[in-house]
């Protein structure tokens, strides 16, 4: 079974893939172009693709040999699922493996944004620290504050647990469907959640419905001291509107792990002090990347063996 692995993976996962499949690895550790995607779909039995690979609708219009896209990652917004299915491919992902690590990065960003951690470190490294002072770099207190989670799925709930049980935060959430939760949390319509939260965390998938879910109108509903944290996908936020809100001080700050046109980060965002910028670190630990790889491998094995795919979408 010929498998194209589109990016370098951890040593443990590459060893398994080489032992069990006729696996080939792309040499460039960058997203597949459309031309590469078309070629790969015509050449291999299965692909192990990931974030940014150009598996949009046009990729599926040529000759197709592949029958499976075993995606590495839970987010599949780089794959046109309808086009893939119409072309006879199954698509799987790696839910669950990413949850805790991504929730940890949401809390990292929330704390860094609230406590001005990036700004303080930049100041210190630039030699600008003159010593402790009672009114120096005062940030926002986190304990006991109100958290609004948008997208109360696996990651949203993991963030809610950390915030409630770890920081005594009062949690509200905006969701499409009713939830049975093991953390106290109040459902609210999105406008109410935006208006009432001290911190807003985005944990929805990127879909046509969530594109620019947070734009100028939604940012205007947020309190002037409130912080927006995005660990979902960049295009869930209208980045230009966010930059305008941050420049004007209409919200207290933002913590971002993802960007609308990543890896491009607008210079206007980089120039701002009231935003914390991480390079899409949500799942970036060896253990989690191993766990994601093992889930993708299980899907490849099931496909090879003709058994039900564990994580079919
Ligand atoms: P999940 O369990 O499917 O949760 C997503 C939640 O979003 C679901 O509860 C869903 O509601 C909700 N939702 C979807 N559309 C919505 C809308 N229009 N309005 C309100 N809520 C909506 O997925 P997950 O595992 O938590 O992952 C969420 C996303 O995080 C992924 O799709 C991925 O893009 C992103 N992610 C980022 C990183 C990173 O490195 N930064 C890492 C992992 C994942 P229902 O329950 O009603 O379906």
Automatic annotation (TrEMBL):
<keyword id="KW-0560">Oxidoreductase</keyword>
<dbReference type="GO" id="GO:0051287">
    <property type="term" value="F:NAD binding"/>
</dbReference>
<comment type="similarity">
    <text>Belongs to the D-isomer specific 2-hydroxyacid dehydrogenase family.</text>
</comment>
<dbReference type="InterPro" id="IPR006139">
    <property type="entry name" value="D-isomer_2_OHA_DH_cat_dom"/>
</dbReference>
<feature type="domain" description="D-isomer specific 2-hydroxyacid dehydrogenase NAD-binding">
    <location>
        <begin position="107"/>
        <end position="282"/>
    </location>
</feature>
<keyword id="KW-0520">NAD</keyword>
<dbReference type="InterPro" id="IPR006140">
    <property type="entry name" value="D-isomer_DH_NAD-bd"/>
</dbReference>
<dbReference type="GO" id="GO:0005829">
    <property type="term" value="C:cytosol"/>
</dbReference>
<feature type="domain" description="D-isomer specific 2-hydroxyacid dehydrogenase catalytic">
    <location>
        <begin position="3"/>
        <end position="312"/>
    </location>
</feature>
<protein>
    <submittedName>
        <fullName>Glyoxylate reductase-2</fullName>
        <ecNumber>1.1.1.26</ecNumber>
    </submittedName>
</protein>
<dbReference type="GO" id="GO:0047964">
    <property type="term" value="F:glyoxylate reductase (NADH) activity"/>
</dbReference>
<dbReference type="GO" id="GO:0016618">
    <property type="term" value="F:hydroxypyruvate reductase [NAD(P)H] activity"/>
</dbReference>
<dbReference type="Pfam" id="PF02826">
    <property type="entry name" value="2-Hacid_dh_C"/>
</dbReference>
<dbReference type="InterPro" id="IPR036291">
    <property type="entry name" value="NAD(P)-bd_dom_sf"/>
</dbReference>
<dbReference type="Pfam" id="PF00389">
    <property type="entry name" value="2-Hacid_dh"/>
</dbReference>
<dbReference type="GO" id="GO:0030267">
    <property type="term" value="F:glyoxylate reductase (NADPH) activity"/>
</dbReference>
<dbReference type="InterPro" id="IPR050223">
    <property type="entry name" value="D-isomer_2-hydroxyacid_DH"/>
</dbReference>
């Amino acid at each position: 079974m010929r498998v194209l692995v589109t990016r370098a993976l951890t040593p443990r996962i590459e060893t398994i893939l080489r032992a069990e499949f006729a696996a080939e690895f792309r040499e460039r550790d960058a997203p597949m172009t459309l031309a590469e995607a078309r070629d790969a779909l015509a050449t291999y039995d299965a692909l192990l693709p990931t974030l940014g690979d150009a598996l949009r609708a046009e990729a599926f219009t040529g000759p197709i040999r592949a029958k499976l896209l075993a995606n590495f990652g839970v987010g599949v917004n780089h794959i046109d699922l309808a086009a893939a299915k119409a072309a006879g491919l199954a698509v799987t992902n790696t839910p669950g493996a990413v949850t805790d690590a991504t929730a940890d990065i949401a809390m990292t960003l929330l704390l860094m944004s609230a406590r001005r951690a990036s700004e303080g470190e930049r100041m210190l490294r630039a030699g600008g620290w003159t010593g402790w002072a009672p009114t120096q770099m005062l940030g926002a207190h986190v304990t006991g504050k109100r958290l609004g989670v948008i997208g109360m799925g696996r990651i949203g709930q993991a963030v809610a647990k950390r915030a409630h049980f770890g920081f005594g935060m009062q949690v509200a959430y905006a969701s499409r469907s009713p939830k049975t939760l093991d953390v106290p949390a109040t459902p609210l319509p999105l406008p109410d959640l935006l208006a009432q939260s001290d911190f807003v965390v985005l944990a929805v998938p990127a879909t046509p419905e969530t594109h620019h879910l947070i734009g100028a109108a939604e940012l205007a509903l947020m309190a002037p001291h409130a912080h927006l944290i995005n660990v979902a996908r960049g295009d869930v936020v209208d980045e230009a509107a966010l930059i305008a809100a941050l420049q004007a001080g209409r919200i207290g700050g933002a913590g971002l792990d993802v960007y609308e046109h990543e890896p491009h980060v607008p210079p206007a965002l980089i120039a701002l002090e009231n935003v914390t910028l991480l390079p899409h670190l949500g799942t970036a630990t060896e253990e989690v990347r191993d766990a994601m790889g093992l889930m993708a491998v299980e899907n490849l094995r099931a496909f090879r063996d003709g058994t039900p795919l564990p994580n079919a979408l």
